[in-house]
Design goal:
The chain is of the alpha+beta class and about 350 residues long. Helices cover about 45% and strands about 25% of the residues. The strands form three sheets. Strands 2-1-5-4-3 form a five-stranded antiparallel β-sheet. It is elongated and about 105 Å long.
Length: about 350
């Protein structure tokens, strides 16, 4: 009896999901990790046929079926299973046969490991490397452009002085100077992407920052019929951040959300204390790391998956105007703060952008 209790305790304590089936593919084992990962309670699935819980073409069903038929283990480093909410989960699957006393295969088990966070971490690393490479290119390009641009500005200013008050030519020189100024602003954005970010970190009230951004965006929200809703956690501690940089990030994200709702809707600002989404299941030797999370939730048309994969790529944009540097800069700034940014979106149901920032200790 004690051996059985130890066996059950071992299964209950495993961090990976374990699913067991008998020779007829009826579920006989479903540990707590399987409940958490697959979004279904053991009470709901025990005794049911595996194909009634998962589609027959799912890797999990296929591998368990093969293992029962052949008595051989099966493994797949990257597979997909359906979660309790219907969304696909990225997992690794390994199956093994369980033999009866006579040697025949009587059951099979599958160990399912969530690799979603690992994939997110790999994507974050790749994204950082892409931004660094784009930044180096941008700095070189900006310096090459800035030298002739300075000469053009000087020549136009001399021309304006020589032409005096002649209204026929002043309009042209003003246009030239304004366009040179606009190109300079673009160059500054390119330099922001590439040069080292110097942060002036200080404890800041996150809600005060958000209210300043909401005030600056009030007119645009009113013009588009967007209602701004606040869901703030009043117990949230101060964040450790650079005020100007965080205002830049939040203003960019609010503007993006408003532009996603040209026909009106609701923009919800949410704050709460959260765990680091990339490392919450990875032991770094310091225990879970609490972060302040702020979400910008819009009710726009959402972002297609193919577009979502490129959102933080420099110079990628879906807008008619713009360089496609806004989100790349947001990512860079949050990365320098030891934080991160994530985007979740569903077609026709809006987009949620989540920023994670360290709290002041």
């Amino acid at each position: 009896m004690s051996a059985r209790l130890d066996y059950e305790a071992l299964l209950a304590g495993l961090p990976d999901a374990v699913v067991g089936v008998d020779e007829g593919l009826r579920i006989v084992l479903w540990n707590p990790a399987a409940e958490a990962l697959l979004g279904r309670s053991a009470r709901r699935v025990m005794g049911r046929m595996l194909k009634d819980v998962f589609p027959p073409d799912t890797s999990l069903v296929r591998h368990l079926t093969d293992t029962l038929a052949t008595g051989e283990s099966r493994s797949e480093a990257e597979a997909t299973v359906e979660g309790g909410d219907g969304r696909p989960l990225h997992v690794s699957v390994m199956t093994a046969p369980l033999a009866a006393r006579g040697g025949a295969v009587a059951a099979a088990v599958a160990v399912i490991r969530d690799i979603t966070r690992l994939r997110q971490l790999e994507a974050e690393v790749r994204r950082g490397e892409t931004l660094a490479a784009a930044g180096r290119m941008a700095v070189g390009l900006a310096h090459e452009i800035r030298n002739p641009l300075t000469a053009i500005r000087g020549a136009v200013q001399l021309m304006k002085r020589e032409l005096g008050d002649d209204a026929r030519f002043r309009e042209y020189t003003d246009v030239l100077l304004n366009e040179v100024t606009r190109v300079n602003r673009i160059i500054e954005m390119l330099l922001d992407l590439g040069r080292p970010v110097t942060l002036r970190l200080a404890p800041l009230n996150l809600h005060q920052l958000l209210e300043r951004v909401a005030l600056l965006s009030q007119e645009m929200a009113a013009q588009q019929g967007v209602q701004v809703i606040r869901r703030y956690d009043p117990s949230l501690p101060p964040i450790l951040a650079d005020e100007d940089r965080m205002l830049q990030v939040f203003h960019n994200l609010v503007r993006n959300a408003l532009e996603a709702m040209p026909a009106g809707g609701r923009l919800t600002l949410i704050t709460r204390l959260s765990l680091n989404p990339l490392f919450s299941k990875v032991d770094l030797g310091q225990g879970p790391r609490s972060l302040a999370e702020v979400q910008f939730v819009d009710e726009g048309q959402g972002i297609p998956e193919a577009t979502r994969a490129q959102l933080f790529t420099p110079f990628f944009t879906t807008k008619d105007r713009g360089l496609g540097l806004g989100l790349a800069l947001c990512h860079r700034i949050l990365e320098e703060h030891k934080g991160t940014i994530q985007v979740e979106s569903q077609a026709g149901r809006g987009t949620t952008v989540s920023c994670f920032l360290p709290v002041a200790r």
